[in-house]
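Milestone 3.1: sequence recovery, worked example.
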């Protein structure tokens, strides 16, 4: 029996999976649109005046970081996820949902509006909350996964 040549079957000859980067870019783009739409929905449901503390942005970033902590543990230790799941959900949906660009704009808005202390507090608080959220969510998820496996 003759061996199949990749170029004869239309398969890539350089070892890359079929679909290449185009599918990944599309997954990130679609996921990003979904995440950004969800974040926009939060801003409609929870509007903030220019001089107020940006609680919605802090909450969105904390929630998004917690979800990414859970998600990464699950797809690396529990499920064999399709190769497009991580780019779609992790980079796309959660990347579009969390908003560190709005965080930066909020800091500038507070500082230029005469609320420098609030801006600095928000800068530090968001960083601490985001790191705590992803770390504690990942830690908790790992413990739950290990507990379920040992039961």
């Amino acid at each position: 029996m003759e061996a199949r040549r990749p170029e004869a079957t239309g398969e890539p000859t350089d070892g890359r999976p079929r679909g290449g980067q185009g599918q990944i870019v599309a997954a990130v783009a679609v996921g990003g649109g979904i995440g950004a739409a969800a974040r926009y929905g939060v801003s409609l449901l929870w509007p903030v005046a220019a001089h107020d503390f940006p609680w919605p942005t802090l909450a969105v970033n904390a929630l998004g970081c917690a979800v990414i902590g859970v998600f990464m543990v699950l797809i690396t230790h529990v499920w064999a996820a399709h190769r497009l799941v991580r780019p779609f959900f992790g980079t796309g949906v959660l990347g579009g949902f969390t908003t560190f660009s709005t965080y930066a704009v909020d800091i500038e808005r507070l500082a230029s509006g005469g609320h420098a202390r609030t801006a600095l507090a928000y800068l530090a608080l968001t960083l601490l909350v985001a790191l705590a959220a992803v770390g504690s969510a990942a830690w908790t998820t790992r413990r739950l996964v290990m507990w379920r496996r040992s039961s």
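The chain has six helices and no strands. The helical segments are 6-9, 20-45, 55-77, 85-97, 100-112, 116-150.
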